[in-house]
Design brief:
Shape: globular
Order of helices and strands: HHEEEHHEEEHEHEEHEHEHHEEHHHHH
Strand order of the largest sheet: 9-8-10-11-7-12-13
Number of helices: 15
Helix content: 25-40%
Number of strands: 13
């Protein structure tokens, strides 16, 4: 039987993996006075951002931008294997020895960690980051109004969370999931790329799946999620037309779907979705399904307050009223903004006007974020603002003039092998 070089290399890699997993007698495993869980607990106790494990140095913690060693013992090859092997499956070990890094998330000590295991000069090494478990509250982001509460009480339908890139909408999505987790007995499946926050079980069960690790794509993740008995499905992005199709399908099918997507306004995101399907043979049916399933569009903008160098989130809220529904089902978006104003919905200008009235920001600052002075609605008397004082954000806001791109309402791209067939069976 002949073996080519590739086959021989594969056999040797598998043999190496087997030998290294057999422990004493094949590899030296010195009796180090700690295990990986104890190191992770030390990282938590010291509020470290990272734990690094490398041959030739002690385990290192990243604390306030400084590298701090745990003890003085310099880790050996056997030490690193003893510490890291419990975190890896047999398949992951084989992947490592083929020269590919391993990424993933895992629970320990009541929280979650992101793991990156790699080889360095032939030795196993790892960088482990603690995932944030301090889920922001709706109040902390200025989302304490009845409008948000009503949206999150929906049992089914589509809620779109939009905003320019770096506008903080993913933190807002995390806060919405956290609110649902604390207030509803539900099964929530969250598709994320990457996982950045670790949701603990409260009233709900939150299933967090990372794209590329736990499932191959957003589209595939949504398609599979509907088979996993969800009450709520959340996505951190709608990157292509196939994902959009399955998102609408899930919303029509009786699930509450929360999805983040880039756009500078509520109207723009609906323009983008409608253009995505307009040229499709089943486009009218998909657009009608979008109109019927849509519950609300929330658009987030970050306002920079120069006096404090803090960022303030401001929210535009479009709800699917009869007039909005009538426009959408015909594939029209030109009148959506005027309908929002006539029905007293919370436009960006109205939200900014509330902040001006409350003395939170100046009129001059508010005008920097609206299309024209007429869009800024400032009431003469006291108003009920939807904003509590939010936490400081280091994210740089994007002003109105920076967001308006000629192609912003361009259709969502179609992935190479996507077809129009996935919707045929249910429309």
């Amino acid at each position: 039987m002949d073996f080519n070089s590739t086959s021989m290399e594969s056999v040797l890699n598998r043999l190496s993996t087997v030998l290294e997993g057999m422990g004493d007698g094949y590899l030296e495993h010195p009796a180090i006075p700690y295990n990986i869980n104890q190191l992770l607990e030390t990282a938590i106790d010291n509020r470290a951002a990272m734990l690094h494990i490398n041959v030739g140095s002690p385990p290192m913690l990243r604390i306030n931008e400084q590298l701090v060693p745990i003890g003085e013992h310099q880790l050996t090859r056997g030490d690193c294997q003893k510490l890291l092997y419990p975190l890896l499956t047999r398949e992951q070990r084989e992947v490592l020895y083929s020269g590919v890094e391993v990424e993933g998330c895992f629970p320990s000590s009541g929280t979650g960690f992101r793991l990156n295991v790699y080889k360095e000069r032939g030795n196993l090494s790892a960088s482990i980051r603690r995932l944030r478990s301090d889920i922001p509250s709706l109040d902390s982001l200025g989302m304490s109004s009845q409008a948000f509460e009503k949206i999150l009480q929906e049992k089914s339908g589509l809620v779109l969370l939009t905003g320019a890139p770096r506008s903080g909408k993913l933190n807002t999505l995390v806060a919405m999931i956290g609110h649902l987790n604390a207030n509803r007995n539900a099964r929530i499946i969250s598709l994320e790329k990457p996982i950045q926050f670790w949701h603990q079980k409260s009233l709900s069960t939150v299933v967090q799946r990372e794209i590329g690790i736990d499932t191959k794509s957003f589209a595939h993740g949504v398609q599979q999620a509907v088979l996993q008995d969800p009450d709520i499905i959340a996505l951190t992005d709608i990157p292509d037309r196939e994902t959009a199709e399955f998102v609408i399908r899930a919303a029509v099918g009786g699930h509450l779907v929360l999805a983040a997507i880039d756009a500078s306004s509520s109207v723009r995101v609906l323009e983008r979705l409608i253009k995505t399907f307009a040229s499709s043979e089943i486009g009218p049916k998909v657009i009608a399904a979008l109109a019927n399933s849509l519950r609300a569009v929330i658009c987030q903008t970050l306002i920079l307050r120069p006096e404090s160098n803090a960022s303030l989130p401001v929210f535009e809220i479009m709800t699917n009223s009869e007039a909005i529904h009538r426009e959408l089902i015909n594939g029209e978006t030109e009148r959506l903004f005027s309908i929002m104003r006539s029905e007293n919905m919370q436009t960006l200008g109205k939200a900014l006007g509330s902040l001006v009235t409350a003395g939170t920001i100046s009129r001059e600052l508010a005008l920097e974020y609206v299309g024209s002075p007429e869009d800024l609605i400032i009431s003469a008397g006291p108003t009920i603002s939807v904003h509590s004082e939010p936490k400081v954000s280091s994210t740089k806001p994007i002003k109105k003039e920076e967001k308006e791109d000629d192609d912003e309402a361009a259709p969502i791209p179609t992935i190479p092998d996507a077809t129009d067939n996935p919707l045929v069976a249910w429309l």
